[in-house]
Amino acid sequence: MKLERVKPFPTKDGALLYYFDVGNGRPLIVLAGAQTSVQTYRYVVKNLKNKYRVIGLERRFEGETKAKLEELTMAKQGKDLDEFIQFMQLDHPVLIGHSLGASVIMSYLEQVGDQDIAGAIFVDQTPKMLNDATWKEGFAGKSVVSITNHTKRLTTPVRRIPKPKVLWLLLNTMVLRQVSLFSVKEKLPLFEDYVKGDWRESLQKMKKPSLFIGVEHSPHWPGEFAATCADLVENGTSCIMKKVGHGAHLEDPNQFANIVEDWVNQLEK
């Protein structure tokens, strides 16, 4: 199966990002995690595009991005998302982010607020990755250095082997196209900024509905963290995806799409 056809999105600072735009209905913007193409949502999109307009934004420094290797911050990634929503002239989209992509949404909320969106879905991502006396839902016993060192190593985002069609997708988006991507070493300042982030306050200010999706077999934190995060938000809810690891939308696209569809249906009521 082919990848989704992409279109260019020129940012105000001269970068060129890409996105796909399929289906009709309420707009859903999907964002992928670290070192991952938004094309990995391909089989989730297949399930959702008959009811919704699904728009996948390839984040800065991923995919076929054309940009200077500067401003490697989560704040910049959040600004890109704000610019993209305005560029597309979207009417209150739902934002869906996996892992680092979820933190981009939190950064967006910190800078812009939630007045231009209908709600947000955060997938296996805590708003604060480093634990301290006030927070116990991050990486246990790790520092910025240890986590970023872990990031340097090539790791699989999945717990169980996905179906052959999804493996093909991973091969084409995360292996064969690596030559066109910025390396982990080049993007290390972004990952360090990501690890040090604390977006709890931006979530506490959020009024629009939100869903925190935990996973049964996350390598990072217990799935129950999602309920703690939901408690930070006035209209927050949570759920746990069963029999999957961190790469939830890759391991079980159908379960992922069903959760999104059920939640958006409730949102529209």
Protein architecture, described:
With 269 residues, the chain is of the alpha/beta class. It contains 10 helices and 8 strands. It has helices at 42-48, 74-88, 100-112, 144-152, 164-175, 188-196, 200-204, 225-230, 248-251, 253-268, and strands at 7-10, 16-22, 27-31, 53-57, 94-98, 119-123, 210-215, 236-241. It has an 8-stranded mixed beta sheet. Helix 1 crosses helix 10 (253-268), helix 2 crosses helix 3 and helix 4 (144-152) packs across helix 6. The radius of gyration is 17 Å and the shape is globular. It starts with 6 loop residues before the first strand and ends with a helix. The model has no long low-confidence stretch (mean pLDDT 89).
Return the string of H and E elements: EEEHEHEHEHHHHEHEHH
Helix run count: 10
Query: What does the average pLDDT come to?
Result: 89
- Helicity level: 25-40%
Poorly predicted regions? none
> What is the 3D shape?
globular
- Distance between termini? 35 Å
- Rg over CA atoms: 17 Å
Structural class: alpha/beta
Beta-strand percentage range: 15-25%
Largest sheet: spatial strand order: 1-2-4-3-5-6-7-8
Described by strand count, sense and barrel closure, the largest sheet is:
8 strands, mixed
- Beta strand count: 8
